[in-house]
Amino acid sequence: MASQVRGAQLARLLGQWHALPGRRRSPDYAALAGAVRGLLADGRLPLGVRLPAERDLAEALRISRTTVTAAYRELRDSGHLSSRRGAGSWTRLPGTHRVAPNGLWIPLDDRDMIDLGVAALAAPPELLPAAQAATEDLPRYLGGAGYHPTGIIELREAVAQGYTDRGLPTSPDQIMVTNGTQHALDLVLRLALAPGGGVLVESPSYPNALAALAARRARITTHGLAADATGWDADLMLGSLRQVRPRVAYLIPDFQNPTGHLMAAELRERLVTTAHAVGTDLVIDESFVDLPLDGTTLPPPTASFDRHSRVVSIGGMSKPFWGGLRIGWIRASAPQVQRLAAARVGVDMSSPVLDQLVAVHLLAAAPGIVAARRTQLAAQRDALLDALADRLPEWRVTVPRGGVTLWAELDGPISSALARATEEVGVRLAPGPRFGLDGTLERFLRLPFTLPAADLVEAVGRIAAVRYDLDRTGLPRWREPSVIA
Question: What is the mean pLDDT of residues 390-417?
Fold first, then answer.
């Protein structure tokens, strides 16, 4: 997003701010201020952005300027806005808050918060022995400069072997080690996508990927995913590729984030064929490929259908192992890896050697670690499903066959309002609009099952209580728009 947001842009982000639950107990200016705080809380409105002039926003929202003036005043009083006479108003954080690793602003004292905004597991017990073993391996690298733009050979061999074991023969020359999957995506976009280039993404999709595309000023076309188990509509998605002919398509076929869908092998093959025909490069995010549940059999990797170097696969250690170990990778053709390495030199040179050695030892122990993770996730998923069925039976959830998240369809377009309300009772949520563009997906909520079962059950209880309280405030009825002929 630009450093200044226009009235029409902010109005799209705000959506139905005036019809949110609780309006009858708050005047319009307070509801508007609360909605802006909500956009700041879930990261859709960045810090340091200049808000539109009062008259501009009033015209865009079709409300009085007095209401906007009062809302801005309340935001200044709460510490979410700083203003200079004649210069404008900029978003900020109140002094008692900080920015969390997931990009959300949170209170400084949040030890009792149940955080459902982050879909990641705590570190496995095997991490500490792996770190100790890596320290013993480190001396043999200390005689060199320590710069390995594509990664140390041991790790590239281990990652390549993982692809080969999945039925996709891969050499270490086809692997580049990165500082996490997000870093991998950024490097690929630097090489494959010129500023303003066209990109096809799923809707919903991973918020940080959307942020990376926005940083490239990409022209984004979306393919909507079904809320049920069907996921992708093959004809619609392939039709979009043929019509739009984007330079890049970013897709998550393995337990898609946030829906949990798994793309069938037939569609993967058709996707690669169509991408080659229209000149589109496919960036395939495999962050969750190691986490099938309930004995689910994985289709072949998307890149196994590639014969023309159109598929670049990215993955990493964050989901099956630990997010604090910033190790990711790119699988591409050997010439592409060399071009990526050349582009990387202008960014960060290389990944830390010690972290890579830790990753080598964890990958050697991966069968046991990942099996335990799958058992843990399946139990936590089932506990979350049971709690939702008991406390929030009106919500619709498709049971994912892998990954770490549920994508819940709510009983109304209240996702952002619910996230703001649950913050007050110690539950942090990532509302649906975080996973789309321009404030859509208000009827949906991502619920990760990466926390202990007891925490998940407690969180659902608090969410259900807040949902009940929202109903008691007297939700205004939705009215059909007037028809003017």
Answer: 94
Which of left, alpha, beta for 290 (phi over 0: left; psi -120 to 50: alpha)?
alpha
**CA–CA distance, 389 with 384 (Å, rounded to integer):** 9
Cα(226)–Cα(259) distance, integer angstroms: 9
Beta bridge partners of 200: 221, 249
What would the pLDDT profile of 99-124 be if each residue is shown by its tens digit?
Answer: 554 455 555 555 578 999 999 999 99
- In three-state secondary structure terms, 92 is coil
Closest alpha carbon to 166 in 292, 328, 251 = 292
Q: What SS3 class is residue 270?
A: helix
Residue 449 in contact with residue 485, Cβ under 8 Å?
A: no
Strand, coil or helix: 408: strand
415 is written with which tokens?
């996702």
Listed in sequence order, the DSSP H helices in 282-410 are 334-344, 353-364, 366-391
Residue with tokens 């280039």: 197
251-261: buried (b, 16+ CB within 10 Å) or exposed (e) per residue? bbbbbbbbbbb
Residue 480 in tokens: 């059909």
What is the pairing mode between strands 105-107 and 81-84? Answer: unpaired
Question: How many whole angstroms separate alpha carbon 64 and alpha carbon 57?
Answer: 9
pLDDT digits (tens, 9 = 90+) for 363-375: 999 999 999 999 9
Q: What is the token pair recorded at 303?
A: 């890149």
Written as one string, the DSSP assignment of 210-240 is HHHHHHTT-EEEEEEPPSSTT---HHHHHHH
User: Which residue's structure tokens are 């649906």?
Assistant: 432
Kindly tell me the sign of the dihedral angle through the C-alpha atoms of 303, 258, 430, 29.
Answer: positive
User: According to the model, what pLDDT value does residue 97 have?
Assistant: 56
What residues form DSSP beta bridges with 221? 200
The pTM is what?
0.81
End-to-end CA distance of the chain: 37
Q: Which residues of 21-34 are buried (b: 16+ CB within 10 A; e: fewer)?
A: bbbeeeebbbbbbb
Q: How far apart are CA 190 and CA 213, in angstroms?
A: 10
The whole-angstrom distance between residue 354's C-alpha and the CA centroid of its chain comes to 27
C-alpha radius of gyration, the chain, whole number: 23
Pairing mode of beta strands 114-115, 311-316: unpaired
Which of helix, strand or coil describes residue 249? strand
Distance CA 354, CA 357 (A): 5
- According to DSSP, the residues that pair with 198 across neighbouring strands are 219
Give, in order, the Cα–Cα distances in Å from 227 to each of 62, 175, 220, 399, 403: 33, 34, 21, 11, 16
Q: What is the pLDDT of residue 27?
A: 85
State pLDDT tens for residues 218-244. 999 999 998 777 899 999 999 999 999
- What per-residue confidence (pLDDT) applies to 480? 38
